[in-house]
Amino acid sequence: MSFNIPENYLYTKDHEWALVQSNIATIGITEFAKDQLGEVVYVDLPKVGDKLNQNQTFGVVESVKAVSDLYAPISGTVTEVNAALLDNPDSLNTNPNTEGWLIKVQISSESEISSLMKPEDYKKLITQS
Amino acid sequence: MTNTSVTQKTPLYDDHVKLGARMVDFAGWIMPIQYEGLKEEHFFTRNHVGLFDVSHMGEIRVKGPKAVEALQWLTTNDVSTLENGQAHYSLLPNNEGGLVDDIFVYCLEKNSDYLVCVNASNTDKDFAWMTKNNKGADMTNESSAWGQIAIQGPEALKLCDAVFAPIKVSEMARNQIKKSTFKGHQIMIATTGYTGEKGCEVFIEAKGTSELWNALLTNPAAKAKAIGLGARDTLRTEMKFSLYGHEIDDASNPYEATLGWAMKPNAKDFIGKAAIVKVKEQGLKRKLIGFKMLERGIPRQGYEIKKQTGEKIGVVTSGTHSPSLDEPIGIAYVETSFTTEGSQFFVDIRGKLVKAHVVKTPFVNKT
Prior knowledge:
The complex is a heterodimer.
Chain A lengths: L9 E2 L4 E6 L2 E6 L1 H7 L2 E5 L6 E2 L4 E7 L3 E5 L4 E6 L2 H4 L2 H5 L8 E5 L11 H10 L1
Antiparallel strand pairs in A: 1-2, 2-3, 3-9, 4-6, 5-8, 6-7, 8-9
Chain B lengths: L7 E2 L3 H6 L3 E5 L2 E6 L3 H10 L1 E5 L4 E6 L3 H8 L12 E7 L5 E11 L3 E6 L4 H10 L5 E4 L4 E7 L3 H8 L13 E6 L2 E6 L8 E7 L3 H10 L5 E3 L2 H10 L34 H9 L4 E8 L10 E3 L5 E11 L4 E9 L8 E6 L2 E8 L8
Parallel strand pairs in B: 1-3, 4-14
Antiparallel strand pairs in B: 2-3, 4-10, 5-8, 5-9, 6-7, 7-8, 10-13, 11-12, 12-13, 15-18, 15-20, 16-17, 16-19, 17-18, 19-20
Helix pairs in contact in B: 2-7
């Protein structure tokens, strides 16, 4: 199975991605994470205005079988949530890299960006597992 | 928990790998959790026919002139009512009135030969317990000698009739067992199952398991697919069937677990009887119920059931997103005053109280 790993995204070992555009990071789960989970049937997300610390849990995605915590790749304030997923997580199942994004965060600590994984490192991580 | 450092393989291990199964460690066994996908497999079983490798289940043979006496003492159901070729669900109680396991007892020869099918994770514990509390029967742990395949779904009987001809499995009543052979291998066909669907569970000499598995997959009488443990769990949860380690364990009372129908305290004496019956006579404090969510959230095993005030009144034993109903369902022990249909309470999901209510079970109607 091959997974699409966009070159302009950054990644975490928890199989999340972050797309950094100026001081806003869009956050989602990777295709690999989605494949491991199976079909996502439920998503829990924070509210706009919530403050997240890096590595703190900010929500969950659940498949029929399993509950997986979501960890903030980066510290910041939630500016937007993909509310469509709360009613119907289908777009997360079909396009986790794009329409299935989870939240947008205003980055509070730009120095944390360098702690995220480059696409080539993430590729290595999932080929090892 | 059992010691999982040594992982055992069923006779179908290579077949699972060939089918591309995702294999996981389950109770000391390496088992397929899914092949194509849990949901697809769940629906395939509900609509067609699913094949389940249940070779990891334990088989304990109880023989000899003292077989009935031993089983009457060890189990809660009345073994003396079983005629040749009949089977029933039963329980192995402990001295404190809790449960060592839940089991199926098959009568192969009335008064002298019985097969007890037990949960994989409990096989060693059960055999030690039965041996320790034996009343003179000949007991053998035959688990490694038998493979077992469950064939379940609306098209299961059609497939079984074709594969096991001349035996007509479709003409066997529920909870029957019949000895036969398949390509020279000894088999026992039992019209039992764990999905709520029509079908059977077939015990076969271990070395013949793979041949039977592939015959079932390729026979043109019905299109069958391999189904993993993931779908096995959602299928049984939709029926509110108990799973040891979830609904019942060594501290469960059978009446609270709504398994009173497998109890025959007036017919005979058995281990833990006084303790079990006392709980019922004093009035049950809690009972196992099925519930659905009235607000967003999926209940999971171990989540607490609470009143709006936060006071704990129960605990979730199983919970999932039901593929058939496309909504969350749960099984829980709750205080008796919250067990009538429509009773409302809250499930504590990650610190948030989410409203739920008691519903009729099984969640999915199968007749």
